[in-house]
Amino acid sequence: MMFIEHCNKMKKFLACCTQQENEDKRDGRRLRRKMVIVGDGACGKTALVTRMATGSFVDIGYIPTVFETDMTEVNTGRETVDLVIFDTAGQEDYDRLRPFSYSDVDVVLICFSLTDSDTLLNVMSNWVPEIRYYCKDAPIILVGNKKDLRDPELSTSCKSSTHSLLTDSPAAESAAMQETSTARPTSVFEDLIRPVYKVNAPVKHSEGALIAGRIGAMAYFETSALKGDNVEELLLATTKAAVLGIKKSRKYRPFTDTLRSWKSVQALRGKNS
């Protein structure tokens, strides 16, 4: 009897949730989507989250995050979305706790540091398997952080583009093959990562774009939380991926068109303000 009563209560609860969701749609209320950000410790996740949520950079030194949540309002031009951001811990000590933040996730950002190629190696060996296991139906966007620290280390011949919406471009893969060393990393993913791996070296745009294509990411962005480079574009692409879902997000053209029209709207607002 207790079990039957519990099941009936659960059915009523689920029915109420469904009814509330339908009422939200009829009333035109805002959508709410959940984003989870993962990556190695000290790769710039929390600074990026703060920039996305508040629009400012806060330098408080490195304080390891356990779990933090923020929410920001994103206007995509067609709809206003409340994006809930879950910032997670990258340390191994929290490997058992981190999966609790993956429930009902709509989009995942996998981050690495553009100043350290080892963090890109960990994307392949640690983060992609974990996300594919717990969040197999969620779109993935690969993000390179600390662009402001990486750029001075690269030669002037580095590509100027800092985000790629067509991550499976053959040109990007060819460029990465020519520009990088064939140092052999000690990883089970060495066949995938070898063409772009250098020990403790800065990561070029073409290298990150190549890995993004190989892990099936929806897009690849290089950002600077300090200067705000590409943060707004990333926020928009993340929101659109969360709304569309993994199947529709694989059609890259809507992302390209959306970013183009969104930039035009922002430019017009800047002139009128």
**Biggest beta sheet summary:** 7 strands, mixed
Distance between the termini: 65 Å
Number of strands: 7
Helix-strand pattern, N to C?
HEHEEEHEHEHHHEHH
Shape: globular
Please state the CA-atom Rg, rounded to the nearest Å: 20 Å
Overall pLDDT score: 76
Structural class estimated from helices and strands: alpha/beta
Unreliable runs, pLDDT <50, ≥5 residues?
A: 155-160, 166-189
The portion of residues forming beta strands comes to 15-25%
For the largest sheet, list the strands in their spatial order. 2-3-1-4-5-7-6
Give the count of helical stretches. 9
Portion of residues within helices: 40-55%
Region (Disordered): 153-182
Protein name: Ras-like GTP-binding protein rhoA
GO molecular function, one term: GTP binding
Biased composition (Polar residues): 154-167
Structure notes:
One of its GO terms (biological process) is small GTPase-mediated signal transduction. Keywords: GTP-binding, Nucleotide-binding. The chain is of the alpha/beta class and 273 residues long. 45% of the residues lie in helices and 17% in strands. It has 9 helices and 7 strands, in the order H-E-H-E-E-E-H-E-H-E-H-H-H-E-H-H. It has a 7-stranded mixed sheet, with helices on both faces. Helix 5 packs across helix 7. The chain is globular, with a radius of gyration of 20 Å. The N and C termini lie far apart (65 Å). About 11% of the residues have low confidence.
